[in-house]
Amino acid sequence: MGLAVVVLLLLLARLMVPGLPPKSLAARLTPVDAGLAAAGIAGLVLHCASMFFEPVVSSFPGSAAVISQINSMGPASVIWYIVPSLLLLAGLRRQNTAVLAVLAVALLTVGVTMYDGAALWIHLDAVFAAGVVTAAILFLLLVPPWRTRPESFRR
Question: What is the model's pTM?
Answer without folding.
Answer: 0.88
